[in-house]
Amino acid sequence: MKPNMNSMLKQAQKMQADMARIQEELKSDRVEASVGGGVIKVVMTGDLNLESVTIDPAAVDPDDVAMLEDMVVAAVNEGLRQAQALANSKMSAVAGGMNIPGLM
Question: Quick one: which of 4, 15, 29, 48 has the fewest CB in 10 Å?
Answer without folding.
Answer: 4
